[in-house]
Every structure is written in C-alpha cells, then in structure tokens.
From TrEMBL, chains A, B:
This is Methylmalonyl-CoA epimerase. It is an enzyme of class 5 (isomerase). Gene3D superfamilies: 2,3-Dihydroxybiphenyl 1,2-Dioxygenase, domain 1. Keywords: Isomerase, Metal-binding. It comes from Phenylobacterium terrae.
Amino acid sequence: MIGRLNHVGVATPSIEASARMYREMLGATSITEKRALPEQGVWVAFVDLPNSQIELIEPLGEDSPLKGFLEKNPKGGQHHVCFEVPDIIAARDEMRAKGATVLGNGEPRIGAHGVPVIFLHPKDMGGVLVELMQTPAEPH
Amino acid sequence: MIGRLNHVGVATPSIEASARMYREMLGATSITEKRALPEQGVWVAFVDLPNSQIELIEPLGEDSPLKGFLEKNPKGGQHHVCFEVPDIIAARDEMRAKGATVLGNGEPRIGAHGVPVIFLHPKDMGGVLVELMQTPAEPH
C-alpha cells in the first residue's frame, strides 16, 4: 500500500530558526515560505531535498496539537513520517480493518500539499506517528 | 551541502515485529533481512520505499546506544534522519566549523550502506539526531 516517503515532519518552536539552521548549517538551498494551516493548528514550511522533504511545523494558536510535543521536546524534534497512498479512503478503511487507530473523526483532511491526509496513532505503528497522504498529482 | 534523504532511522524493540507491521499493516513489499552491525551496537533492516528507506534498528549487545532511547520509548519511535553528502570528511569539517557537535571521536564510521557516516548531536539540529552519509555509489 504505502508508496513514497513524502516527508518527515519536524516540530520546531520557530520555523525561522529551523529554516536558518537547514540553510546555513546543513546547506539546504530550497526552503518554502512559512504559511498558516489554521485548521490543523500549525505553521508549515518545507525543506526541499532531491527525493523528499522535511516538513517544518510550528504551533499556531492556543489549541495547536504541537503544544504538548514541544513541552516535552522544547528544542523540537522528529514528529511524524508521511507516506503516500493511491486512495486515502481505501487506505483509511484498510488500516481500520487491520486494527490501526485513525486519529480525529476519521474523515481525511486537506493537508499542506492540497490532498487529503489521515494520521495513525503511534501505539499501533511502532511508536511512530504516521501520516498517510493521497499521492499528489505533482511530486511534493 | 545535504542531498537526498537517505533514510529515516526508527528504533524498535523487535525488528521482526516492526517488519511484520510494515509488511502486513502498511503493505510494504520490500524489507531486507535483519543483520548485525556489532561496531554500532545495532541490528538493522531496511524497508524499501520508491524514493527512500525506513531503517529499522534494534539494540545489539549490552552497550547498545539504543538502550536509553527504548527505555524512554518502549514501543520504539523515530530515532534519526540521514542525509547524503558528497564528501564525509569535508562535511564533518564544515559542520564543526559552523558549531555543530559531531558525536564520538569525530572519525567517520562505516554504516549499514558500506559508506562512511557521522552523527550530529540533536542540540544543534533542532532536536533531531542527524546522520550524514557519504553518497553511496549505488542508490540506497
């Protein structure tokens, strides 16, 4: 079922500071502008790599789902991995049938790439928060 | 400097159990055999994705560097990200000059892909343990 590793989600208290680190220390050359995803409670920017992306996410608003993570990890850290799937509804139903726990109400939401996504609880995924994203029409 | 996202390192108490989860729940179709890397204190296996890999790592021996991680995260979890660089010595020297902390004695070690690698302390990397790997001659 899973296809490409679309991105690794990295939580940060400051996208600006993280973008500077990726650019100046690690020499990343393409980093997107920061933008708001209010319905997900995050700011987001992408570090483009030749084959994948790092998704930098920063809390947006008081109810951001990242708040707890950053309280435990004040410097930030690896938050989730995102795999592409051909059909998000088929993937959701298959994951549920196999005993995975789909977060939220189970309805896919539109993610940062403009395609529907779901998240799977880490407890069934080897401790890893897994995002499944319907394969975008264009890479990334 | 950084090129491809070579892999995401995922620590697990059992590579067999994790491989089963990736195969049976997430539908991964290509997972390498588990093998020992005694000098790094880990067992390793790779989940092949079309553009990258998940590196499953399990403690090997009493002094495994994964023991502390798994005590804090008994189910496992995301452990590191690995970026390819063209020249590991040049990358190490550049990272040091920019204030990053190279783990161990700073001498690159041969990693699971047969090429030299170094690790950078998370405190300078936005809370993420970063592995740099000299680009393998063949993909993966």
